[in-house]
Amino acid sequence: MGDLRDVFKYFIVAAIVSALFLQGIGPVNVAAEEQEPVIRIGVVPTAESLVMGAEGAFDVVDKETGEVLIAGAEGTVDVELGGAAVVQTNYRLQVASTTSESYKEDWLERAAAAGYVTYVEEFGDFDRLLIGKFPADAGWSERAAFKNDIVAAGLGGSDSYWRVITVGEGEMALNVTYAGETATAANAVQIIAASERVSINGKPYRGLAEAGFNSTGTLAGINELMMEEYLYGVVPHELPPNPYGELEAQKSQAIAARTYALSNMGKRSADGYDLLPTTSDQVYGGSAAEHPISTDAIDGTKGIVATYDGKLITAVYHSTSGGATANNEDVWNSGATDYLRGTHVAQKGNSLKYVPALDVYKNSDEGESLRKVKKGDFEADWSRYYRWNFEWTAEEMSEVLSLYYNIDVGEVYEINVLEHSSSGRVAEIEFVTENGTFYEYKDRIRWALQYINASGDPAVLLSTLFIIEPVTDEVNGEVTGFKTNGGGWGHGVGMSQVGAVGMAEAGYSYEVILKHFYKGIELETRY
């Protein structure tokens, strides 16, 4: 019997491979059959209370014991922290992220010896080290003085920054109320509905809803569902079908998003879920975000992932490269990754001479000539951020840098680009100011050199592919501000999403698109 089963398996696999080839997918490897995984998304990462519901009848179940706490016909339940829990929200100064246990223990000992309150936040494979505890209404000057003390004591650097942290302390419990009836649970609770349609804080999702405890002792609203259903709510947000409806580009996005999710399962397990629904991981909008074009792309590539040497790749992507993507080590402090190599985003071969240079844009009429010439570039027709410009007043630049470095920098005299990476991105920048000279590197430059958006608030610079120059008074030559001309949106590593759209429009398949942006990869069906 065993031999006969093997024969049947051979013909089944052969039929699958043949069908995929006839559909134009090409040589996709079929791996050993696996079950489609379940994924957990922290759609509400921290809260003191949640409102959860379902379409039709549902049960509220103790996750650990399986006991049905409440049986509901319709509507919503209110979940609140109970027991002896006390929730506090404070400013805490984050000074480091580390994977070294010895470094963490040494830092904690030195901080304790100096009499400082500390807090360690687990985050995937590393720990975030925070110090101090200030009320949420603490003033900037008070916190700035504290930071200076921490830097002087050698417990943090000038790049330390303040975060607002909410922490629950004491014995935790959940109070679940439905139709005037309240049940108390010591464990996480789940809403399970026959319809498999639930809601958390009014937002609809597939699968089930859960209220659990995160690593800070407050509530987390968690949506648990099948991987492909999760992608239904991701792909339309990451690559909106309107206007980016090219099916092969949507398929490329689906495979990249699936690969990212699978390779990051358990990333945030300390908080009770796998991923966040934001740009920290992938933007996830639940069932309300679903779109037929994206759903077709996901269904048409079910289970397909990108691998390198048989392992899932880190399938990072960004909106717009500006003409060329970047090597990962030129953007982040990480070792070179073979498949994350910078590449052109143009039609005419491998030569970077077809990528419009920033100095061409600088001397053009706000980029219009680039859109007329195009030079075969895939992005220029699709992204309004292919080329961009911003201008700061002297006061705005001082404000932006003071906010980032958490010190009053005073007048900004010069901004100098000291180093570029191979893709033309700024790798090191220098800010010469009245109160000192400050530096930043690689992708962190976008956070240091923020622009002032339409609402009047600082916002992260779109990319590090830019030229920056002073604006001077025509009469006396004094610096009155700074201006930048740049290109692209995002970190620039991996797949350019609008570049993928342009390639799809030109007739390329998702396999060609993915192998263009991720060098040397294979496509493999995991389930």
Automatic annotation (TrEMBL):
Sporulation stage II protein D amidase enhancer LytB N-terminal domain: residues covered: 217-308
InterPro entries: Bact_Sporulation_Assoc, SpoIID/LytB, SpoIID/LytB_N
Any Pfam family matching the protein: SpoIID
NCBIfam families on file: SpoIID_LytB
PANTHER family hit by this protein: AMIDASE ENHANCER, N-ACETYLMURAMOYL-L-ALANINE AMIDASE-RELATED
Official protein name in the record: SpoIID/LytB domain-containing protein
